[in-house]
């Protein structure tokens, strides 16, 4: 029942006015990379698949809908036996994705396609948003560890749990959120709060008690009273008094306030002087890709970043705007394209049930994505003529390129066809794409290169014909 | 299991190192009003109460924790039988709240108090954020209807559903999210998507089909092709051709793109000219309190605002930063205050297990909030001497004022003492406070008046003594 009410009113309308026999194709795409970045990361597909496979209406749902007083009993009876009978095509989860290309295409009877709209968007929007943000933060951390500390500032429980999942796909190392660890097998981490220190009679007592319980994993929070005059000295003292006699080393200290670059440098020197060169410094407190970049430019010797609210809400850009637009209607076995016109040219949709290819040069770099008609298979034995829709007058060719079709049929007639990858596979897939396929120029934060979305000549012609027809009609 | 892992490591530490007999008091408070506003609205309490009353660890939870390899079997056995045994004091849900005052105080054995931290914060942060944002938008709409359209851009399912609940508390009229309607009894609303129009062979056919199914509630989306040349004329035509012969009136049209103020004015004139003066105009598309204010200043004749992404993510300020800080420890029946020191003066906590009074003048306006020691009851028979902690040198009195204690004991020894209000009561409570108690000067968007948080002389003295003692110690 996670749907917008209009999906129900429309479904009932379709049910009443039409036979639910026409199949339609809906594309899911987004228009703008978050944070003015060069790309996004596709997250949420597993959750979408689970939703679609389990979609049904139970007695309570039917009763609730009946109580609205606008739905016919025939329609309610139909819903009672409803299950999704359509097909789902999608990019693999974890794919690098770009604006205006269909990342998911739902091909299904009208009603089936209409009522999954909101859930598909919500799940994709949320997880893609957080995976993309997490990856930006991980890139800024430049090889250092990033841990998710976001649960308490997440937009409720699912946002914490699925957000942790998405952050892991994006490259975060661990989460503090126990439920996410339990549900997805992400490694959980956590140390102590200020309350641990404040509960005890002194900071030294607090660290000592913690070291006695966790001699192997002690990370002391050193900013409760005074980092340099109390926190770090007490941490060193407990390392010497308590841990060393047990043959243990202090694992780390955590800074959670103040001037993190300055404090980390001072603390590093104090730790090193005490022979604790292997003690890690962890920093937290409203971090994101921008503050982490700044800390590293300042030479802050920080080994681990605990990132919370700015990751789990994608604070600097908290809306991922994927939309769900009808692209085609199948009438008597023939797909008719549909296009959404807008006064803003960039909001005109790419019509038709179509394919997306990623085009790689001979070094394996993804140089463009390409929209084609459904029946087209690029011939790679010779230079491939394509259209840049922003400069259709140019005669352009892909030479010595390979083409990978990005959308895969994963659900057919309501049945899952494939085994979905594990979370670690998704995380590795993101890493591999960024290391080998995606230009570094698309990965920088400032004015990244804009990935091309080109069209096959046939596809471009179809779109132009459609636009001409519509504007002639008027 | 919605908790940060450190709550478990600390709980285990407390279990191992101490007897779980000391009771502690944790305060939940926030430091900054969202969007530079004058106040926030407290949401999420019902969800917190449900969480606390149901908190337990099942076999799978215990197995997951055991697999972490750091918890003793004694502790795991203890968790197996765990239930929350403490007390919860809280402001009524829907209360207007201000920075740095304890909105919730958890008084419980150490472990009980520690492990509810994250869930309490997540639920309060999310719902308070959205209730506050929704109320800003409702205030901007100045009596016009606001509907929640946010689900697809919410941070996953809970964010959509509990966000709709919070938005309703904040004053929104209805939600498009069916699951929220079902779960909380909020009235649901919804019309049609562009896909309805695009599926049909023409816009006229689409409107006609919809009017035939919903003669009483037809709201036509008029911007699929061209608002003024196609959408509004087709809407009028269907009102005449289809609805009027049935004795029905067209309920409304919806604008979802373009220059909303301009289009609404033009559309209004066309509708009026056609005798459809009672047809409402609804607008949507990235609206929030700022765009709505601008539309109304321009004289846009809009009756209903559909608000989505900027409401459900609180886009302009998506983090509500309530924190959970230890305020006191009960030793042998005596409460010892605890304070968190910080180099930033505004981050020094208000120590001790304490009370909050709201102070009203003779006209019933809330002129300040007041922190007192636990045992203090203000004597209202004579002027009440209080301290403004920012100007402690001034001799200040509340005269002819009444005092309302804001925190109520709602859970005692793990049992719920009170009946929680209905959602409609919460919404009315918000409305009543804003109409009668809260200064208009605190409700404006630009430079709102800052509500005072004063202290009783006894409370102020306690805090100063504590600070002196700490800084003397060093």
TrEMBL record, chains A, B:
The gene is pncB. InterPro entries: Aldolase_TIM (IPR013785), N/Namide_PRibTrfase (IPR041525), NAPRTase_C (IPR041619), NAPRTase_N (IPR040727), Nic_PRibTrfase-Fam (IPR007229), Nic_PRibTrfase_pncB (IPR006405), Nicotinate_pribotase-like_C (IPR036068). Pathway: Cofactor biosynthesis; NAD(+) biosynthesis; nicotinate D-ribonucleotide from nicotinate: step 1/1. CDD domains: NAPRTase_A (cd01570). One of its GO terms (biological process) is NAD+ biosynthetic process via the salvage pathway. It comes from Veillonella dispar ATCC 17748. SUPFAM superfamilies: Nicotinate/Quinolinate PRTase C-terminal domain-like (SSF51690), Nicotinate/Quinolinate PRTase N-terminal domain-like (SSF54675). GO terms for molecular function: nicotinamide phosphoribosyltransferase activity; nicotinate phosphoribosyltransferase activity. It is an enzyme of class 6 (ligase). Residues 146-334 form the Nicotinate/nicotinamide phosphoribosyltransferase domain. It catalyses: 5-phospho-alpha-D-ribose 1-diphosphate + nicotinate + ATP + H2O = nicotinate beta-D-ribonucleotide + ADP + phosphate + diphosphate. The lineage of its organism: Bacteria, Bacillati, Bacillota, Negativicutes, Veillonellales. This is Nicotinate phosphoribosyltransferase.
